[in-house]
Design a protein that fits this description.
alpha+beta
């Protein structure tokens, strides 16, 4: 019996160590520029899987050999920065004492027109107005000129500026005067960032609204992704509807490499955008800076790391709880929408609002205190 237990402990120790090493590789992949290491650029997306595996070993070791818990614990200490970025916990929060503004960022995806034939153009517009946010950054706001949408938003927000970003306009709604608007000139086909200077009771805040390069996945690609996930879980159905049956018509390996190539290409483009965006932030002369929008990348990524390594920190990491997935379609659960703030601002009650489902993104909001 002792021999069997010793072999089991030895085998589990190796598996646990491999999981920890892979978790660390994923965590520190944020330092690798996707242009130079394109095939490593998506590792942050699978980081949570290795965190879960690592955590699951702790109760196992408590039953078999408690000292081996150190394998998982030390691994989590080494990766703690990425773990907190991905899934922060901020249960005890105080209340702001100084001047505050409420910030909302929302990829509205044409205000939900994609959903069905019974599209109600007022739903997202009503949500934005009812949120009582002081400053709202919208992405993919192509239907903002719709009469109903425009009327509802202008009734609550006297200052509205649109960035003409190809077919996917970014828009700023504000209860405070917008002094001017400028754009960051990317050399890429898609992706946009607009800089708005907003006067908040005498303080000028630079608000940079972003919609960075997407993965450019077609509906067919997204369906293949869902099949790939189901296949990995043994849930592909055959013509008779049986789970785990014949998968001859689905080539998982070919699908994986096809999707991997697209993801790597898009991540490389997005990284160059993040480099220029980070340079713009560093050169910004305004006292307060807010950078928000749809980054199309997870919290464990080169893009997120690049943008939070200088003047900015993540409002959700500081004041949110849980992974806060903001993309909600096609089995792709990631927090790709962000609000980043300068060090002289403090975040409170950051949340991804999952009750609003008219877009393929959830809105993210927080209260910001100006220090």
């Amino acid at each position: 019996m002792k021999i069997i237990k010793a072999i089991l402990v030895w085998a589990l120790s190796i598996i646990n160590t491999i999981a920890v090493v892979l978790m660390a590789v994923c965590a520190y992949s944020v330092y690798l520029h996707p242009v130079h290491f394109p095939n490593w650029s998506y590792l942050g997306m699978i980081f949570p899987a290795f965190v879960i595996i690592t955590i699951c070993f702790i109760p196992i070791w408590l039953l078999l050999k408690w000292k081996n818990c150190l394998i998982s614990i030390l691994g989590m200490v080494v990766c703690w920065g990425s773990i907190r970025d991905y899934c922060p916990v901020n249960l005890m929060q105080g209340k702001p004492e100084g001047k505050t503004i409420k910030m909302l960022s929302y990829n509205v995806y044409m205000f939900g027109q994609w959903t069905d034939n019974d599209w109600d153009e007022s739903v997202i517009a009503n949500y934005i107005v009812d949120s009582d946010a002081d400053i709202v950054c919208l992405q993919e706001a192509a239907n903002i000129s719709n009469e109903i949408i425009n009327e509802k938003l202008t009734s609550a927000y006297p200052y509205i500026k649109m960035g003409n970003a190809k077919d996917s306009p970014t828009v700023l709604l504000s209860k405070y005067p917008i002094l001017d608007i400028d754009s960051i000139q990317y050399s890429t086909i898609s992706g946009s960032s607009y800089i708005y200077n907003v006067n908040v009771d005498g303080d000028t805040i630079a608000v940079i609204n972003n919609h960075l390069e997407s993965y450019q996945l077609t509906n067919e690609d997204k369906e293949l992704y869902k099949k790939l996930i189901k296949e990995s879980a043994g849930q592909i159905k055959d013509d008779a509807g049986e789970l785990g049956a014949d998968t001859a018509n689905f080539d998982a390996k070919q699908t994986f490499w096809m999707l991997e190539e697209k993801v790597a290409a898009a991540t490389s483009i997005r990284a160059t955008q993040a480099d220029l965006l980070a340079e713009t932030i560093e050169n910004c002369k305004q006292k307060y800076i807010i950078v928000c929008g749809d980054f199309n990348d997870s919290p464990v990524s080169y893009v997120h790391h690049k943008l939070t390594s200088g003047k900015l920190h993540d409002a959700y990491t500081e004041a949110g709880n849980g992974p806060g997935w903001s993309y909600n379609k096609n089995g792709m659960y990631f927090r790709i929408d962000n609000i980043l703030i300068s060090e002289n601002m403090r975040s409170y009650r950051a949340k991804v609002e999952k009750t609003s489902k008219e877009s393929d993104h959830y809105p993210i909001f927080c209260t910001l205190e100006l220090l």
